[in-house]
Amino acid sequence: MSTDGAPTTPSDDLLNRRIIDLISRGDARSRSDLASLLGLAPSTVGLRVQSLIDAHLLRERGEGTSRGGRRPRLLELDGDAGVVLTADIGGGHARIGVHGLSGAVRDVRTIPVVLADGPVATLDAVCAVFDELSRGTIVRAIGVSLPGPVETRSGTVHQPSRMPGWPGFSVIAHLSERYGATVAVDNDANLAALGEHREQFGLGGHSITVKAGTAIGSGIIVDGAIHRGATAAAGDITHTRIDASAGRPCSCGNTGCLETVASGASLVRQMQELAHQDVVRTGDVLQLAADGNPEATTLVRTAGTHLGQALSGVVNFFNPHAVFLTGSMSASEPFLAAVRSRVYEACHPLVTQQLRIERARTGADAILCGAALWALDNLELPVVR
Questions:
Q1: Element (H, E) at 208
Q2: What is the pLDDT of residues 334-346, one digit of tens each?
């Protein structure tokens, strides 16, 4: 309600996103469905839907079944409205996707990249695939994930590790000039969190998504949107101090960080210290644990306990609906079980009463889905006057 008691409606951008989301998810099929779900007057919804039709984002596809009056005109996303392109750029490779306007993945390619070659060379390689995937159609928006802290307004990374030449370079400006489309950039963990959360909760709810692989990252979603904090560092549990770490030095300059004892890279190092020199990747440790190797199993369980300990403080403070785990480590049942056990043991019962701790459903596509949704969230949509 407004201050004078009159009903209020969501902002234009939010209402557009809700309408597109409801139709893309199949929750609404007509204007009357939208009015009912949004709690708005049919006239308000009708004007909004018409503006989206005029912008070639929605289209009508025939008539539905009458419920006593005129048959409703059914709505769907306009399949000819263009595509969203995405890139999940990592240290040694990039996954590149093409999506419809619902954010659903249509095709994915993987190419080798070398971040140390700098942003121009890396993005040129990505753009070559973008051009191939978008040939013959309109590029509406582009979403990019980077493996470091991101200033989202400019699309630049700041204080990144292992990304020489990238600080101060605007990915948004570079790609916008080339494609003339909306470009949105964020950290990979944030986008994984957004992709998984929207898959399970839509535009509401609160969750934490942890990407546990060679390294550890996490993202926080509040009311369906990424929570970044004052300096875009919210959710970074990677450098939480773990007492059992024996003061191991971390790449951040401190000692005893979670990443030194719970990441895939730390498991590889610890197995090598136990004379398993044939272990070179996180997958090697996980496979040994799956095969019943007692040393690997113990290390994997201990890593899960450490992650659960770091998460318990966040869960107690934040009280989310769910904690989702993605990345290679999440495939290990001993790891997942240890995380669950520690969080449930260390948190207040009221906080864990309805808490879900589970693997991400979106799997390897979580970051690409999140990048597409983040790009669509930034897409300029029509304003009803």
A1: strand 207-212
A2: 999 999 999 999 9
